[in-house]
Design a protein that fits this description.
Layout lengths: L2 H6 L2 H26 L36 E13 L3 E16 L2 E16 L5 E18 L2 E12 L4 E17 L3 E16 L17 E16 L4 E12 L2 E2 L2 E2 L2 E12 L4 E12 L9 E14 L43 H4 L14
Antiparallel strand pairs: 1-2, 1-14, 2-3, 3-4, 4-5, 5-6, 6-7, 7-8, 8-9, 9-12, 10-11, 12-13, 13-14
Length: about 375
């Protein structure tokens, strides 16, 4: 539409054209205004997410790491003892004992073997065996915490003079260390004992007045309790003891509810190079022994023991020096006298002009010679 046409158009037409132009301008400017218009007064951005004052761990990787104490250790103990007499009476007694005890993390293992042999006679009769037994044991401990563990103990025993071709004991239980430090320790065990006996001919002897032989096998079920104590009197002398109670709760061909008690005590004194001298005492009580046997057996053994341990030796920390007694306060310092410097020497006085002028010489008259 030309400018001439607009100028020549009626006023109503001009008003309509102006309104159309204004409407077109607003239409194209609206998107630009929408993009640049600031937020209204009073409007605010949404608040940031709230944070906990104390944040807990979000997963296993965020949990604090608690270092486990280093408890891996291996102990080896070997001992041997004997007795020999000759002459009118002859006696030979030998005992051997070996044990390996190790700890790996939360697991403990023990392997032990014990054997005894003895024979004696009175001359001129030939010697005859009086003791012949061997025993082996395996033990596994699983430590739930450092002082509480569950265990399984398996023991096998052969004893000719107890009428046993073989005796098997299975003992599961729980061990609790009540007290332990560098000097002494005290612990207890409780559990169940399963016992299976395979008897030899001596173990099947009839119980008078009956003439019927006993069964070739026997099974017993008992509750087991054990307490142990160990003390180090010093770095060279140790003492250990243990008491075990086995109370049957079934009937067998030997009687009802048998009771067995085992006790042992040992004292060891270190010599050198890992060797020790030991004295041990053992007592075994059985309320219902096989016919013709005593209820109580005891033995005392003097033996030489060799021990080995791979635990690192504890390094003793240097003890701090004792505090010095309080010293008296030092005397107050003496007053300082300021030093006086000697006066500078006066500069030499310059000589006067008269002194420096050479004296006038009087001319000497020379008399003429006649």
């Amino acid at each position: 539409m030309s400018a001439a046409f607009l100028l020549g158009a009626p006023k109503s037409m001009n008003r309509f054209s102006s309104l159309a132009v204004a409407l077109i301008a607003v239409t194209f400017a609206a998107p630009t205004l929408a993009q640049t218009t600031p937020p209204a007064i009073g409007a605010a951005a949404p608040p940031a997410d709230a944070k906990a004052l104390v944040a807990g761990p979000k997963g296993p990787n965020d949990a604090p790491a608690i270092p486990k104490p280093t408890s891996d250790e291996t102990n080896v103990n070997l001992s041997a003892g004997g007795l020999i007499t000759t002459g009118n009476s002859k006696t030979l007694a030998l005992t051997l004992n070996g044990q390996v005890d190790m700890r790996r993390g939360d697991n403990g293992f023990l392997i032990g073997v014990l054997g005894n042999y003895g024979e004696s006679t009175i001359a001129p009769n030939p010697s005859a065996a009086t003791a012949q037994n061997i025993q082996g044991k395996l033990r596994y401990d699983r430590f739930f915490v450092d002082r509480v563990a569950g265990f399984l103990l398996v023991t096998g025993r052969h004893d000719k003079f107890q009428g046993l071709s073989f005796r098997l004991n299975l003992d599961p239980g729980v061990k609790v260390v009540a007290y332990k430090d560098e000097v002494q320790s005290f612990w207890g065990e409780a559990g169940y004992d399963f016992q299976f006996d395979a008897r030899n001919d001596a173990g099947r002897a009839a119980i008078p007045p009956s003439t019927t032989l006993l069964d070739s096998t026997r099974t017993d079920h008992s509750a087991r309790a054990f307490v142990g104590y160990r003390r180090n009197f010093n770095s060279a002398v140790t003492f250990s003891t243990g008491l075990e109670l086995l109370q049957s709760f079934v009937k067998t061909d030997l009687g009802d509810f048998d009771t067995r008690v085992n006790f042992d005590a040992n004292v060891a004194a270190k010599l050198d190079f890992g060797f020790s001298l030991g004295v041990g005492f053992t007592a075994r009580y059985d309320r219902l022994p096989i016919p013709g046997r005593e209820r109580l057996d005891t033995s005392t053994v003097l033996s030489v023991i060799y021990s080995w341990n791979d635990a690192p030796k504890k390094v003793e920390e240097a003890k701090p020096c004792p505090e010095c007694p309080a010293c008296p306060p030092p005397p107050p310092p003496s007053p300082v006298v300021p030093e006086t410097k000697p006066a500078d020497p006066a500069p030499p006085t310059p000589p006067s002009p008269a002194a420096t002028t050479p004296a006038a010489t009087t001319p000497t008259s020379v008399e003429p010679k006649p």
